[in-house]
Write a structure and sequence with these properties.
Elements: H1 23-27, E1 33-35, E2 38-39, H2 45-51, H3 58-64, H4 73-77, H5 103-107, H6 111-117, H7 127-140, H8 146-156, H9 161-173
Antiparallel strand pairs: 1-2
Helix pairs in contact: 7-9, 8-9
Length: about 180
């Protein structure tokens, strides 16, 4: 949004409320918080699963666990965030049953399913190929079951090089 209205400039955020708390540093699965209020985005699961368009580096795949879209561990553990209120905005509400979805079911979605089920959601911006890439990692980190192995093998047929690379990694985790 652009405006020519004279707006009061915000005061810079200077106060460090963290004190000796290191909860966010301690909980970060990939050690992306590397210093005092400094994040190495290349290690951050949110960056890796949302912004990165290519292959997710092997050293982070196990650490991603079953996260398909982002990671809020640092936000969830922060004691200051207990004072925040849940948004009433529709854009921030859980929709389409994605809060308790089954990875194998999500992996079976066609691109048309993905576009329909993520309509109006920020999830859509990662695109279908990165969606499948991320789910393949989640399935590689899931308990070994016939259902998981079958889903990975079925998706190998006619998938992109990006998705197949992550499927191959996932299958190796179950050997």
């Amino acid at each position: 949004m652009y405006t020519n209205l004279p707006l009061e400039v915000d005061k810079p955020f200077i106060k460090n409320h963290c004190g000796s708390c290191n909860a966010c540093i301690d909980i970060c699965p990939t050690n992306a918080i590397v210093g005092d209020m400094e994040i190495d985005a290349r290690r951050c699961i949110s960056y890796l699963t949302i912004e990165l368009r290519g292959s997710i580096p092997i050293e982070f795949r196990k650490l991603i666990g079953n996260r398909v879209y982002g990671c809020d561990d640092c936000q969830l553990i922060c004691p200051w965030n207990k004072f925040s209120k849940n948004s009433e905005e529709d854009d921030f509400r859980i929709r389409n049953g994605l809060d308790s979805a089954d990875l194998v079911e999500l992996f079976s979605w066609t691109e048309k399913d993905f576009l329909k089920r993520t309509e109006g959601s920020a999830i859509r911006r990662i695109g279908y190929q990165c969606w499948l890439r991320n789910i393949a990692i989640g399935l590689g980190n899931a308990p070994k079951t016939k259902k998981v192995i079958d889903a990975l093998k079925a998706r190998q047929v006619n998938s992109s090089l990006l998705v197949n690379e992550h499927i191959e990694w996932a299958l190796k985790q179950h050997e």
